[in-house]
Every structure is written in structure tokens, then in C-alpha cells.
Amino acid sequence: MKKIICPVCGAEYTFQEIFIPSNFMGNITNVNRDNNGKIIDYIGKDMDLKESYRCDYCDCKFNVTASIDFICKSPVVDFKKEHKTKLNRPQLKFKED
Ligand SMILES: [Zn+2]
User: Fold this and answer.
1) Looking only at Cα atoms, what is the longest distance across the chain?
2) Which among 94, 75, 95 has a CA at the least distance from the CA of 85?
3) Is the CA virtual torsion 36, 75, 83, 91 positive or negative?
4) Is the separation of the CB atoms in 50 and 19 below 8 Å?
5) Ligand 1 center to residue 25 CA distance, Å?
6) What's the average model confidence in pLDDT over 12-16?
7) What gap in Å lies between CA 39 and CA 34, rounded to an integer?
8) Which residues have their alpha-adjacent CB atom under 5 A from ion ligand 1?
9) Which terminus of the chain has fewer CB atoms gathered within 10 Å of its CB, N or C?
């Protein structure tokens, strides 16, 4: 679990205690893209990664900025090579007489 720590007294908070989900996530409803899938513009409110909070233990006010990265990976698929798909469950085998 990621913790948010008061910079004055060290009290620990969860993300859910500090951030307001609707503000954090934003609300984008309409995204316009070009022919290559690049975003041109959108309607709505982007993510708000900053929040302030008054500590329950020392009463100081502190600011929190979330840092989010999106890691996108794709396996390089060579369709010329033989491809095997791994199954999570054992394969059933049937004997034919
Ligand atoms: Zn504190």
C-alpha cells in the first residue's frame, strides 16, 4: 500500500483518505482524435493530482501531489514465426481407439 505521510509529524494516510475520487479522476466526456489516434482536444475536466489536507494529529496543513505514470507495453509479434499460446489450465487429452 502506498502511504501519504504528514511532512511535520509523520502520521500516515491512505490515498483514499486524502484524495476525492471525482476530482482525482476528472471527467472527460468527449475526446477528438486525428486519423492517427492522437488527441486533438477534449471536453471536460482533466485529472487533478494535487490535494491539500489538514493533519488529524498535528493540525498542520500540507499539500500532496500524486505522480502517475502509465506504462504501456506490447510484445513484438512476428507473424512469420511459429507462435505458441500458453494455457493456464492443463489440456485435456482424449485417447482414440
Ligand atoms: Zn501531522
Assistant:
1) 79
2) 75
3) negative
4) no
5) 26
6) 96
7) 7
8) 6, 8-9, 11, 55, 57-58
9) C
- Output b/e per residue, 36-60; b: 16+ Cβ within 10 A: eeeeeeeeeeeeeeebebebeeeee
Burial (0-12, 13-18, 19+ Cβ within 10 Å), 62: middle
What does DSSP say about strands 39-45 and 50-54: parallel, antiparallel, or unpaired? unpaired
pTM of the model: 0.65
Alpha-carbon distance 47 to 57, whole Å? 28
Distance CA 10, CA 55 (A): 10
Spacing, Cα 61 to ligand 1 middle (Å): 8
Could you count the other beta carbons within 10 Å of the beta carbon of residue 2?
6
Residue 81: pLDDT band (50, 70, 90) is low
Residue 59 Cα to ligand 1 midpoint, Å, equals 6
